[in-house]
Amino acid sequence: MREFSEQELVRREKLKKLQEMGIDGFGHRFGVTDFSLDIKAKYQDKTHEELENMDEHATVAGRIMFIRKMGKASFFSLKDKLGNIQIYISINDVGEETYNLFKSADIGDIVGVSGKIMKTQTGEITIKCMEYTHLVKALRPLPEKFHGLSDVEERYRRRYVDLIMNDEARKIAFARPKIIRSIQNYLDSRGYVEVETPILGTILGGAAARPFVTHHNTQNIDMYLRIATELNLKRLLVGGMDAVYEIGRIFRNEGMDRKHNPEFTSIELYKAYSDLEGMMDITEGIVSQAAMDLNGTYDVEYLGQHISLAPGFKRAHLVDLIKDVTGINFFEVKSDEEAFALAKEHDIAIEPHFTFGHIVNAFFEKYVEETIIEPTFVYGHPIEISPLAKKDPQDPRFTQRFELFIMGCEYANAFTELNDPIDQYERFENQLKEKDLGNEEANEMDLDFIEALEYGMPPAGGMGMGIDRLVMLLTNSETIREVILFPTMKPKDN
User: Fold this and answer.
1) Considering the domain 163-313+374-482 in this protein, what is its CATH number?
2) Contact, 401 vs 280, CB < 8 A?
3) Helix, strand, or coil here: 78?
4) Domain span(s) for CATH 3.30.930.10 in the chain
5) Which residue pairs from 343-352 have beta carbons closer than 8 angstroms and sit at least 24 positions apart in sequence?
6) Which regions of the chain carry the CATH code 2.40.50.140?
7) pLDDT tier at 427 (50, 70, 90 boundaries)?
8) Residue 327 pLDDT more than 60?
9) What pLDDT digit, counting tens, does each position of 85-107 carry?
């Protein structure tokens, strides 16, 4: 058993005294009727005299964050889910027994207060406590400088403390569901239906990524945690569910950095009879509307850069962007050998499975990606890296695919969906060849999906977007771990 600090021992002794008084140290139901921010917004414009005459009351509950004791009267700050509010408590209002109970409280304790709304001479909205209820004894003291810890990983490991001490972390935690709700409302109003598909599967597909592998004991088979929701959602289009989307967890057994967590949240959506242009429109609408719903403006500040998310995002072909930066026009490159020579000249590392399209993509990633600041739909990806997208009829080396880039980061990926089962079978076969050559992110053959396409999938557009990155952008968060409540962390050494 661990050793307790002096403060922890004092708090445990206070807990015993509460129990001796017949008070449950860990509380019961309490009838909260009001929250700090709402009270301030409602009464901030009232004068001291007006509030005295109005005789308005409120009942709040939260955590004690500050105490200033002054003999027979005291002030303390109570923090609820929306913020802080000042409480005034006096022995004349609550009686000696209750006031003594309050005086034994510690910062971090959770209490309930009912009382009259007032404004102090300094103009601060305050609740004059008429009823004080102990709810929960905090047995550990709050850290004094938690927000300023040099080891920021401690904030992520103990997110519960971070949410108590760090108002910005709490703001992000409440912003995230608002963004998700905005997306849902936007799509629901346009005829999309939210669905759920399996997290466990036996075939790797829908994206280029390394999976997490687990084992099903009853069936004695290995299974994958999904790396995408794509193929199951397309099956629903075959079944006639015209427009569908899913917001859910995705798992990729890859590195961790500022923009990547092995467990993250994505949205994928598919619309029958749509195409790449339709997906650009719906993606732009989702991002713009989420910005407006959260912040009341299309303008955001992100990592010191002003970005406009107003509708009308730039649209540019990937090959044209490479030409703008490097002067190389890959539309005029006609062979793998010519592409290899250009790669060598421009310090592009060539992997065993590389062909023309892989080199084009490598040029984009090395020379172009980080130069894109304003929202830009980059379209026309090579077929080798787009096994689920329709070919460009003008140049079948490329596909009807786009990625949305903002501030050098990818936010969304979309296709005019491949619905030709013969072409799809060949693409899967090519992916298997890449896997044999060492590409651990290549797709596997999904014969059931081929069968579904053989029944006929309507022409369609599809899009996937990382929710976490969108939340980062709209809350000006530098790392993905700020916007995931419990990010993946390396275990601490004992």
Assistant:
1) 3.30.930.10
2) no
3) strand
4) 163-313+374-482
5) 351/438, 351/439, 352/437, 352/438
6) 6-142
7) confident
8) yes
9) 999 999 999 999 999 999 999 99
Evaluate if residue 139 carries a pLDDT over 70: yes
List the one residue out of 423, 324, 312 whose CA is nearest residue 374. Answer: 312
DSSP symbols for 110-143: EEEEEEEEEE-TT--EEEEEEEEEEEE--SSPPP
Contacts of 467 (CB under 8 A, 6+ apart): 176, 179, 180, 183, 247, 264, 265, 266, 267
Mean pLDDT over 126-153 rounds to 85
Q: Which fold has domain 6-142?
A: OB fold (Dihydrolipoamide Acetyltransferase, E2P) (2.40.50)
In the structure, what pLDDT confidence band is assigned to residue 152 with cuts at 50, 70 and 90? confident
The confidence score (pLDDT) of residue 144 equals 79
In the chain, % of residues over pLDDT 90: 88
> Is residue 440 predicted with pLDDT exceeding 80?
no
Contact 92, 130 (CB under 8 A): no
**Residues 368 and 322: beta-carbon distance below 8 Å:** yes
Hey, what are 169's tokens? 């972390």
Rounded to whole angstroms, how far apart are CA atoms 457 and 467?
A: 27
Euclidean distance between CA atoms 411 and 382, whole angstroms: 19
Instruction: List Cβ<8 Å contacts ≥24 apart for 468-471.
Output: 468/261, 468/264, 468/265, 469/259, 469/409, 469/410, 469/411, 470/179, 470/287, 470/290, 470/411, 471/172, 471/175, 471/176, 471/179
In whole angstroms, give the CA distance from residue 362 to residue 365. 5
